[in-house]
């Protein structure tokens, strides 16, 4: 399709969709000018400065969803119509439809979902709306919407898309107590995965994820043996991938799912097939975390001690220590944590220990553990992980009412983040700092940190989080913060 005919088709599609939306009572009028002194107004200015069309579409989608989260549905839909990417625009509309359902506006949610042309996305939207009906206790209506979603899913041509749609619909039938129907749909989904014969690595990745979802749903209806067979198939597909790091990542998730359904031995066997030592270590650590949930301390500690990767072994022992703390066995928790060799794993374990002390109204002991954690972190080399550790400690100080200490640590974290050279890790670290500033109501400081984020998408995400916090708390930005937003909007426009 040439560019001219594509634009014409898009215009016709949007015109038809607009008529249908207006028929639902959704008015598409929106401000002719968006205030640049609001978080989302600034986010729009950032989006407009993005040159890459795919990145700009993704950014506009995120902003539209932020407007929907703030219940400004009219503007969210209007903004979505400006997205010049059919797939992103359709997915965004589906998300807005789900937001209508979360707001108990089910008629508008279903009506908006019905305007979506793509069968797969429409089915996903309707299934999500059905789930919202379940959560609201309207099981009959959930069944009706699930049935409608199933009819649409029958029209999906791509095997894996159909498999995923059927798996999601099966969850609704599980919720409403129709396990036989759920099992029938899962069988159909499984068959569709098998029918997909494409051997491209990204298709294999989709197969694995879908098989894991099918196994999870089989587990929910207590068909454990079938779930295990499906996971074995997922494992087989993973081993057929020639890209080692991708293969190992899939094996990590498969092992974790085995552990989560109580099949720890199977999980360990999968973990042992992982080639990368670090990934294998973290996989075994996660399995330790699942084992200790069942109070199998000795088994968990034995497995933890077999891990050769020091940070992963520390992670595993931290799981054990935290579980002891949850059970209020603080002395045993401290004893385990003291054996951790990795600085960050030990610091995080001490932070979690402080959480449990705080929950037990032992703030003095909570502060003691945080001080230990802070001392350990300060002794490590500058870098991304040090900044994240500072952020974690700062957040916990807030929870025990020591916001002054929180701000002190966040300032140190910001200084550390500014010297990170990696183009991805630096903005990620800054975003984490900005989030905690938002949580303590320090909006100006949060916006200052946000302004230092050079990645436009992460900057937009952070502005969206600030906007959502303002909505949830009912707070307003002061004049200084608004001026900073105007300056940020002007800077990106240059």
Please give a structural write-up.
This protein is mainly α and 494 residues long. Among the domains are: 197-274; 398-494. The protein is built from 26 helices and no strands. The protein has helices spanning 3-23, 39-48, 53-69, 73-80, 86-102, 106-114, 119-135, 139-153, 159-175, 179-195, 201-220, 224-239, 244-260, 264-272, 277-293, 297-305, 310-326, 330-337, 343-359, 363-378, 384-399, 403-418, 425-439, 443-451, 456-473, 479-493. Helix 16 packs antiparallel against helix 17. The relative contact order is 0.07. The model has no long low-confidence stretch (mean pLDDT 91).
Strand count: 0
Characterize the overall form. globular
The percent of residues in helical segments reads over 70%
List the helices and strands in order. Answer: HHHHHHHHHHHHHHHHHHHHHHHHHH
Give the uncertain stretches in residue-range form. Answer: none
Oligomer: single chain
Which structural category fits the helices and strands? Answer: mainly alpha
- Determine the strand fraction and express it as a percent band: under 5%
Distance between the termini: 35 Å
Number of helices: 26
């Amino acid at each position: 399709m040439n560019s001219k005919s594509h634009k014409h088709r898009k215009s016709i599609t949007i015109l038809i969709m607009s008529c249908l939306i207006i028929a639902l009572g959704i008015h598409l009028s929106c401000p002719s000018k968006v205030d640049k002194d609001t978080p989302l107004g600034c986010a729009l200015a950032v989006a407009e400065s993005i040159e890459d069309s795919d990145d700009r579409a993704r950014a506009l989608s995120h902003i539209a969803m932020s407007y929907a989260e703030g219940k400004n549905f009219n503007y969210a839909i209007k903004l979505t119509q400006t997205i010049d990417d059919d797939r992103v625009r359709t997915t965004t509309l589906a998300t807005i439809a789900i937001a209508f359902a979360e707001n108990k506006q089910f008629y508008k949610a279903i009506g908006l979902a019905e305007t979506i042309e793509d069968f797969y996305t429409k089915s996903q939207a309707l299934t999500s709306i059905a789930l919202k009906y379940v959560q609201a206790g309207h099981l009959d209506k959930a069944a009706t919407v699930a049935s409608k979603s199933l009819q649409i899913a029958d029209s999906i041509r791509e095997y894996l898309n159909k498999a995923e749609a059927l798996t999601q619909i099966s969850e609704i039938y599980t919720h409403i107590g129709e396990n036989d129907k759920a099992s029938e749909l899962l069988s159909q989904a499984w068959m569709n995965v098998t029918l997909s014969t494409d051997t491209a690595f990204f298709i294999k990745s989709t197969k694995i994820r879908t098989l894991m979802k099918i196994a999870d749903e089989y587990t929910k209806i207590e068909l454990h043996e079938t779930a295990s067979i499906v996971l074995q198939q997922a494992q087989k597909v993973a081993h057929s991938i020639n890209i080692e790091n991708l293969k190992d990542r899939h094996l990590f998730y498969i092992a974790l799912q085995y552990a989560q359904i109580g099949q720890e031995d199977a999980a360990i066997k999968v973990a042992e097939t992982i080639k990368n030592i670090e990934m294998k270590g973290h996989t075994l650590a996660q399995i330790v975390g699942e084992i200790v949930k069942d109070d199998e301390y000795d088994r968990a500690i034995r497995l933890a001690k077999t891990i050769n990767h020091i940070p992963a072994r520390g992670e595993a022992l931290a799981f054990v220590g935290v579980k002891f703390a949850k059970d209020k066995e603080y002395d045993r928790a401290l004893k385990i944590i003291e054996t951790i060799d990795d600085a960050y794993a030990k610091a995080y374990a001490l932070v979690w220990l402080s959480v449990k002390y705080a929950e037990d109204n032992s703030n003095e002991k909570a502060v003691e553990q945080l001080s230990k954690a802070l001392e350990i972190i300060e002794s490590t080399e500058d870098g991304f992980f040090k900044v994240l550790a500072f952020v974690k400690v700062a957040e916990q100080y807030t929870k025990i009412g020591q916001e002054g200490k929180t701000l002190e640590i966040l300032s140190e974290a910001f200084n550390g983040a500014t010297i990170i050279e990696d183009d991805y890790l630096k903005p990620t670290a800054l975003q984490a700092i900005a989030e905690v500033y938002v949580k303590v109501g320090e909006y100006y400081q949060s916006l200052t940190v946000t302004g230092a984020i050079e990645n436009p998408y992460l900057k937009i995400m952070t502005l969206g989080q600030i906007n959502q916090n303002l909505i949830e708390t009912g707070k307003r930005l002061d004049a200084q913060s608004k001026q900073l937003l105007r300056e940020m909007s002007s800077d990106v426009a240059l």
